[in-house]
Amino acid sequence: MSNKMNKGMYSSNSGNWSTPQEFFDMLDDYFHFELDVCGSIGNNKCLHYFDETDNGLEQDWKKVNWCNPPYGRVIGDWIKKAYEESLKGATVVCLVPARVDTKWFHDYCFKYGEVIFIKGRLKFGNSNNSAPFPSAIVIFGGENKGIYGTIKNNATVFPAKEKIKI
Known about the structure:
By secondary structure, this protein is of the alpha/beta class. The protein has a single domain, classed as Vaccinia Virus protein VP39 (Rossmann fold), CATH 3.40.50. It contains 4 helices and 6 strands. Strands 1-2-3-5-4-6 form a 6-stranded mixed sheet. The longest helix has 13 residues, at 75-87. The protein is globular. It starts with a helix and ends in a 14-residue tail after the last strand.
């Protein structure tokens, strides 16, 4: 990846951060995602996905959903939508920057979600460097009460098919 691409990836001009595949696979082994609500062609994590032309904010989310929302000013809209869809019976697992001082984090993540902080910093996309911010998994809906702790950013710590206690 060129220096120009790395610089753009860490600027506030780019809100799209591609989920590391190994990290996603670890979560998918546990949740069995059916829909990527913030996908894009070539960067979707599930066979079924909404891209920008579908506008996932205007769609109904069903069953078990993966959500790595754009990390710009619209992230609060995505987190609110994730919570609202959970009230309709969906499970939504979100990968978000751990911005615990923000309104959206307090209004939705802390109040209604299961928050799991990720130990260390993820390397998004094809970047050579770790992200300049910590990350968290926030789970809305489903039978995930009691999941707590931290996740190391490798696949060996997150146990599949059982409650997570780290």
